[in-house]
Design brief:
Sulfite Reductase Hemoprotein, domain 1; five-stranded mixed sheet; alpha/beta
Length: 348
Amino acid sequence: MTEKRRTISVGNVDIGGNNEISIQSMTNTKTSDIKTTVAQILDLEKEGCEIIRVAVPDVDSANAIKEIKSKINIPIIADIHFDHRLALRSVENGADGLRLNPGNIKKKRYIKLVVNKAKEKNIPIRIGVNAGSIDRKKYEHPTPEALVDSALNHIKILEKMNYENIKVSLKSYDVNTTIKSYELFSNIRDYPLHVGITEAGDFFKGSIRSSIGIGILLYKGLCDTFRVSLTADPVKEVMVAKEILNSLNIRQFGIDIISCPTCGRTEIDISKIVQTVKERTRDIDANLKVAIMGCAVNGPGEARDADIGIAGGKKEGLLFEKGEIMGKYPEDKLIKLLIERIKKYEND
């Protein structure tokens, strides 16, 4: 594995090296529908998206980037396939990066035009390979070797044109194939890595597959930026992405709520308390661990170790703060008191 991957910049977001792992998503609107696309991006920004990608299948979409960019606050990447003219127009309209495989542009002079324009504007190109990108004459199936070979072929086209402002993704639906692909590639090149599990599925299935695949790559240090790809509202992609980073203690987003799975010993409504606390503290930006526990077996220990916590009893519970018991209160008062304690840390 290379010692350290190089750093590139997508707008004001630095990727690679020792930089923070960034969260990406992609709109599912028609990019030419500027109003709807901007509204979705602003929702994504509010949730914590840091880089957004938009599909550019036509000239209207490429032209829309200029106005979209003027109304949002995060870098925008143009997703281009086959047509170099759309890439050129997207860059002219302010795209902060391109997702484009140069091997899909048949004429070398057209690739050169895109490369020169990217150099002029100092924007990166992401080479993104998946099962549809491999050479089927050479490889029968999308093996890790096939994905890496495809990526290297695209990279070599750009390197021969003295262009190395590149990041790379090697995505597969299969988690094991994806992990092995990134492992192989990281031993060959030091370009920053954009990670994801492609075509992962709906919110339930896709969240699990993505969490496993992306989580392992993060743990192995083989991720610089990533997208959780879901057949769902893109805002949910960002929600899952933040929780993946939270779970590995890589980044902290808001309050970390720990809650027990409940069992026959539970005599307070843990599910209701958890959901209510989540909703009422959603916008609180505090690095805080909150434990919501249902009984006296593990509850006091977990609650005591958290910054703030409750341990349930029979229609009542103990309230803890920084390891100290603050009192015993009936269930109907616990939520109010817990939220009050949390809000006390909001501006710390």
